[in-house]
Amino acid sequence: MHDTLSRTAVPETADATGPELLEAGFRLVGAASDVPMLEGRRATVDGQRVAVFRLPAGFAAIDAHCPHRAGPLYDGLVADGCVTCPLHNWRIDLASGRVAGQEQVVGVHEVIERAGQLYVRLGASACDRGGDCDHAGEPAAGAA
Amino acid sequence: MTTSTDILVIGGGIAGQAVCEALRERDPELTVTMVCEEPRLPFDRVSLSHLLVDGKDPEALQLRPETWYADQRVATIVGDPIAELDPDAGTARLASGAEVRFGRAVLCTGSEPLMPPLPGIDLPGVIPFRGPEDCQTIRREAARGTEVAVIGGGLLGLEAAYGVASQGASVTVVHLMDRLMERQLDDPAAELLEPALRELGVTVLLERQTRLILGPDRARGLRFADGEQLACGLVVVAIGIRSRTDLARSAGLACERGIVVDDTMTTSHPRVLAVGECAQHRGMVYGIVAPIHEQAQVAAETLVVLDAAGPDMVVEHGELLRDDGDAATSATAVATAGRTLYEGSILSAKLKVMGVDLVSIGDADTSGAPVTADGGHATSAAVHDRESGIYRKLVVRDGTLVGAILMGDTRGHELLLDGVKNAREVADPLELLAEASQASPADLPDSAQICNCNGVCKGEIVRAIVDNDLGSTQEVVSTTRAGAGCGSCKPTVTELLRVVRGGQVEEATYLCPCRKQTREDLAAVAREQGCESVSELSAACGAGRDCGACKPGLAYLISEVNSNQHREERHARFINDRVHGNIQKDGTFSVVPRMRGGVTTPAELRRIADVAEKFEVPCVKVTGGQRIDLLGIKKEDLPAVWEALDMPSGYAYAKSVRTVKTCVGQEFCRFGLGESMKAGIELEELIEGLYTPHKVKLAVSGCPRNCAESLIKDIGIVAIEGGWECYVGGGGAGTIKKGELLAKVETKDDVLRLAVIFLQYYRENGEYLERTMPFVERVGLETIQAAVLDEESGEPAALLERFRIAKAACDPDPWKERRAPLHPKQFAELDSEAAPIGPPEGGEVEAERAAATATALRHPALAVTHVSGRSAEESPDA
Fold first, then answer.
1. Distance, CA of B142 to CA of B160 (rounded, Å)
2. Which residues form the signal peptide (chain A) (predicted)?
3. Which of B168, B551, B667, B826 is 20 to 30 A distant from A19 in Cα terms?
4. Three-class SS of residue B179?
5. pLDDT greater than 50 at residue A58
6. Are B68 and B17 in contact (CB under 8 A)?
7. Residues 6+ apart with CB under 8 A from A139
């Protein structure tokens, strides 16, 4: 249903080793075993905070904070490929970054598990984003 | 790309949706395509003010779920407006370039907010009150403390202003006229409305003509015609609507203020109909919701009749004609087909503002037109009670009812609306007023409209209840749509249900609303299949799979069914229960250590002070439950803070037993009749660590002066001369209510035992997120007394035994996870090293936990052999 798996299997990185992933712009964020099933954890990639989740079908990564009141999305409840922000229950699709019922879109990032380690590469639009951008851009990876 | 459809509905608002539904009620075969300009499926714009007040997810306002469109085979095109309409050719071109060929089209393009051409109207900070985005802006600005001005004192303006005030922001309504809602109200009613609004925090400025909006960079205030100024940071314009007719005009259709339609809702082109705020019928453009449904019914009827008559048929001037112009005995054909014509709507308006009950029906104002004895036929009768804010008026013209205003007391408004619609003859208006205030839904005629949003009559509701054997309000709402709009008629729907079912109403509350599963359903599944975790329950019946919002409720259910010997899954717990702190607006957590009975020691206070300094805690606050709260702790610091505090978790973050508040009682107080501190501490030890359907706050007072506020607690204990009282179901927050006296008993141990048994009864029978106040109201005190007091039935002892088992397996101090985290990075970030607190020393955690529980369970109040013949006798009130 969600393209989490297809996103992790980007052709250029399908067989890449850890060092090759780093070469391709990915960053090592930690051990896959440290993200329990259907939970999220925060990490920092190239100075940007991201939230990494473990879903039944693999891993997903989006911006760490909710576009509403900057709630910590990594602390949200996860179900059906979506995370619900713990502050005011905004619901965000982890594959597309879309906020249910809202115009806003949260940045989506690529995440790959390789040899028990998690690697994250910021989505295209995330890299261009300025500090005070309102995160209204289109979903970065996954949709591309 | 070209697609084809029999009926093309242009516009995805309430009108477009109403047309689709009215069509499908009549004809399952016609192909229907709805084109929505906005990037979403139709939502309930009428309830926009709810969005503003309670911050509801706009998704909740969606009129129908996506599956409805698939089930009903209504094709939808979303976020792609129609750019060009050619009625002669029967084609429409979308903005994306795609083309749709249609048999007939219905324009439901609605309206846009009227923005007056004032200087500064385009400045940032000037918005209409129209869509979810506007609600978000208002909420955001209100949260910042921005002063808000609302231009327009009509229905919409007042609802917007109320929404702003409900967010705690200062708001001023600026109105051009000399009274509010001048189209619906007369002077006396408007005069009552103003103070009611003022009480809600809304300032009203009348007779102010706004000349310009002050800038320069963004809206900074208003200047009125008299030179006076009003400073503000956000201007909400709600002065009215303008029909959207651009598409109709460019298609060559006749338009005045709206798209001109006849009594069959057909425009000047026989192939095109129009419905809703974009349509002008007999010179009227309706800006409220009820007429939309009436028009949609007529439009659907017209379309179906045309379809049945064959592809060549058209309607012209209300007559059915063959396309070549050959008259085909039009009037007869129309009559045979049983078609209803639209003859205009009675206007009725209900102000959806909390605490202000106001309904205006039809032509309600006679003040503007002076009544003369002979020529002016309008007379009115009113009951006016300024003190209690009640005003009820009827307007009668030529002996028939034409309008009414009900303010402060809206009883009987359905009866009066029905009377206005059917031009009820009125000999004595005062008598009718009296009748209306006695009217219950049972007395209403079947034709009386109950839900003005969705146009549902009493007869339809009654039929739906009988035919489908409906038992709950929730079911009636989803079957009939009555109450699915603004919701203000829901109490009437419930009342009707009660009348039809002879008082038997089972209000189903779903624990998992997505799958329509109640707590009982799910508990039965969990018991039968032996589910020991939320995942197993989800796998068994799907609960919690969809939106996941019910997962914490499922987690509680699983723990309760398994007497806390379940398999804990943190993904099903709210973040508070994963890291054992209460999440704050900035994502930090608060830390409240256990301080039983509100009694502490110098050593504890010293440690708390040291922690506050060492971790630079931003705020140290005494809580309402007589404890100390350390606010603003980062998640990663929680383990170290707990270690330094060396006190157990106070569970201040969970739906669980919180704390027992006490007064000093007999030990110090000269009025004390019982040892309230001692009893409170013992009670807290007995029950701490237990999860409950909702939070449970307790108190023990040493005498009936009730300094610990026992009467407004979930469980409140009061020492009296010669015994103890136990109150349950009190509340002192959103709704204030004195608890019900469960029983009077003789000894402290008796009362603690009773409190524990009641707690267990609530744990087993409460709905998730149902506090004890609504719980006691729902279940009834007598039922509860029978269960917890009747020792001979054996039930109290059984409850006590189940309590002991659950308590023995609960976790009295989850803060021990600082040394034994459930996951290595439970508190730390993924890419950082967790600060080691030190290993759990040789099973110390488990041992301590067992010891603490064992101590609590040895309390005499929990002795299973406990003989307490007194409790049942001592409650003569039962």
1. 12
2. none
3. B826
4. coil
5. yes
6. no
7. A96, A97, A98, A105, A106, A107, A108, A123, A125
Q: How many domains are contained in chain B? A: 6
Element (H, E) at B100: strand B99-107
Average pLDDT over residues B284-292: 86
Assigned domain for B827 exists: no
Does B549 reach chain A within 8 Å, measured CB to CB?
A: yes
What per-residue confidence (pLDDT) applies to B255? 94
In CATH terms, the superfamily for domain A4-128 is Rieske [2Fe-2S] iron-sulphur domain (2.102.10.10)
Above 0.90 for ipTM, yes or no? no
The pairing of strands B715-720 and B723-728 is antiparallel
State the CB neighbour count (10 A cutoff) for residue A115.
Answer: 8
CA angle B774, B776, B780 (to 5 degrees): 125
Average of pLDDT values for B170-191?
A: 89
pLDDT of A48 higher than 70: yes
Which tokens in the block code for residue B582? 């209460």
Whose tokens are 């502050």? That residue is A87
Q: Do B583 and A87 lie within an 8 Å CB cutoff?
A: yes
Same domain, B387 and B458: no
Per-residue b/e over A31-58, b at no fewer than 16 CB within 10 Å? ebebbbebbbbbbbbeebebbbbbbeeb
Q: At what angle do helices B490-500 and B458-468 cross, to 10 degrees?
A: 50
Q: Does B599 score more than 70 pLDDT? A: yes
The reply to whether B824 falls in a domain is: no
What mean pLDDT do residues B865-872 have?
Answer: 46
Contacts A100 to B, Cβ<8 Å: 57, 59
CATH classification of the domain holding B361: 3.30.390.30
> How large is the average pLDDT for residues A83-108?
88
Contacts of A87 in chain B (CB under 8 A): 583, 585, 587
Closest CA to B590 of B600, B582, B599: B582
pLDDT digits (tens, 9 = 90+) for B398-435: 888 889 998 888 878 888 888 888 888 888 888 888 88
Asked if residue B58 has a cis previous peptide bond (ω within 30° of 0), the answer is no
Domain boundary pick from B306, B336, B366: B336
Averaged confidence pLDDT in chain B: 86
Q: What is the 3-state secondary structure (H, E, C) of B457-475?
A: EHHHHHHHHHHHCCCCHHH
The residue of B831, B832, B833 whose CB has the most chain A CBs within 10 angstroms, and thus the best one to mutate to test that interface, is B831
